Amino acid sequence: TDPARIYLGLNHRGAARSGLYRSTDSGLSWSVLSNFPEGDVQCVYVDAASTVYASITDNFDWSTEGGLYRSMDGGNSWTMINDHPRVVDLDIDPNDANRLLATGQAWYRPSSRDGELLLSEDGGTTWEIISTGVAHTFFNFGRFDTRRGQTELLAGTAGGGLWSARLQTETSATPLTGDFDGSGIVDFPDF
């Protein structure tokens, strides 16, 4: 990992030009990555191996199209790995670099996709929606939490509290089930 290399995503709200930018001199100068798809950038994540993930949407206010992209060469080329129109957050399991958690947000519901927690066990090749059955799906973030010796998922919502579930590593993920009861944290059955 090169500490002088920084990425910055902008959307059209408050920015002269939306897009993904890269600095190779610790932020002293910036250049737009013209090979990244046009749109409003929602999130940027750089993993320990310098793989860059970034998501875009066609319009910050009325998202209908977009996706999550990955670059394995420092931002020189990009591959779409998920087509959710509004991925607002991404996390990678610190114990397994192939396990990704993407947070897809419904924004005024103009698209056919709801808010979703999306789990990939194979580095983004395939994805499973694991938030089926969760009543409050306006997700703002999803995180892997490994502090207690097991992998748990945490998901925060806008006004619906913090959700928690344990991840069973010996079996594939199954959808979260249950309903938010208003207490702030809900523990779901293992999946």
User: Which stretches of 5+ consecutive residues score pLDDT under 50?
Assistant: 170-191
Strand content: 35-45%
In round numbers, the mean pLDDT is 80
Q: Which outline best applies?
A: globular
**Largest sheet entry:** 4 strands, antiparallel
Could you give the order of strands across the largest sheet?
Answer: 4-5-6-7
Could you estimate the helical fraction of the residues in percent?
A: under 10%
Helix run count: 0
Report how far apart the termini are: 33 Å
Number of strands: 15
Order of helices and strands: EEEEEEEEEEEEEEE
Structural class: mainly beta
Work out the radius of gyration: 17 Å
Question: What are its keywords?
Answer:
mainly beta, 0% helix, 191 residues, 15 strands, globular, single chain, four-stranded antiparallel sheet
What does this structure look like?
The relative contact order is 0.11. Helix content is 0%, strand content 39%. The chain has 191 residues and is mainly beta. The strands form four sheets. A four-stranded antiparallel beta sheet has the order 4-5-6-7, with no helix packed on it. The chain is built from no helices and 15 strands. Strand 10 and strand 11 form a beta hairpin.
